[in-house]
Amino acid sequence: MDIHLSGKSVVITGGTRGIGRIISLTLAKSGAKIAAIYRSDEDTAQSTLAELNAISSAGHFIVQADIAVEDQVGEAFKTISEKLDGVIDYLILDAAVGAGGPLTEMTSADWIRPFDVNVHGAFYMVRAASPHIQKNGSIVFISSGAGHDPMEGLSSYGASKAAANHMSTVLAQELGPRGIRVNTVSPGHTDKSGTDPNSNPESYTDRQLEIINTTALRRFGTAQDVANVVLFFVSDLSGFVTGQWVRVNGGRL
C-alpha cells in the first residue's frame, strides 16, 4: 500500500543517522518535506541531506542543535518555523542517549545525561513545536524496550524512556482535542545501519544467536521495520489511534 505524504512537513530529532536516518528517508519517499535536527556529526548530516535531496526536491533541510539545551531548541525552531512557514505536520522524537553500567556505580553525570536528552529534550521539542502542529498532525516518540522492561545495566536509560513513555500518553490526552495524535514506537534489538543483518546468518555471534532464538520471528529487527511503523503512525491509516505504544521487537520474550 502506498502512503502519500506530499505537502506534509516533518521535524525529526536524530534524523540524520541510525534509525532516525531511515525514518527520514522513508517519510521523504512518501513525499514529505524533512527538517532533520542533528547534534554534532555534520559530515553525516550533510550526507543524509544529500540522500534526501536525491529522493525529492521537497526542500529538505538540516538544523544543528543539542536538544538537551533549551536555548538551542529555541534557536533551532526559529530556523524551522521560517523554512516551514510556521507549519508542522509531524514531529518525530528519535534523538536519544544512554549510559550503561550498574546503577550503584554510575556517576551523577552518566545518570543525568539520558534524562537531559530523552526527557527534557523531548519536553523542549514538544513545547516549541506544538503551537505549529496542524490538525490531523502526529507526534511519534521513539522509545525502547528498556522503557518497559527492567534491563540490567540500563537503569538510567530505561528510567528516562519510561518517563518519556508516560509523557507521550499524557500528551495524547492534552493534544487530542486539537486533532493531534501522539504515539510511541519501541524498537527491540534493531540494526541501525540501514542494512539487513539477517542476510548473513552464518556470521552471527553466540550473543546474536541467543537474541534470535528468544525472538518469535527468529530474526533481528531492521531500522526499516521501525520506520514502517512510524510511517503508519503519521499517516491517516492511524487516524483514530492515539496514546498507544507499539513494540517493534519481533515478539522477543
Summary tags:
alpha/beta, 9 strands, globular
Description:
The protein is an alpha/beta fold. It has 7 helices and 9 strands. It has a single domain, classed as NAD(P)-binding Rossmann-like Domain (Rossmann fold), CATH 3.40.50. It has helices spanning 18-29, 42-55, 70-83, 108-129, 155-175, 206-213, 223-234; strands spanning 9-13, 33-38, 61-64, 88-93, 133-142, 181-187, 190-191, 221-222, 245-248. The strands form 2 sheets. A 7-stranded parallel beta sheet has the order 3-2-1-4-5-6-9, sandwiched between helices. Strands 7-8 form a two-stranded parallel ribbon.
Mean of residue pLDDT?
94
Describe the global form.
Answer: globular
Biggest β-sheet strands, sense, barrel: 7 strands, parallel
Radius of gyration (Å): 18 Å
The end-to-end span amounts to 30 Å
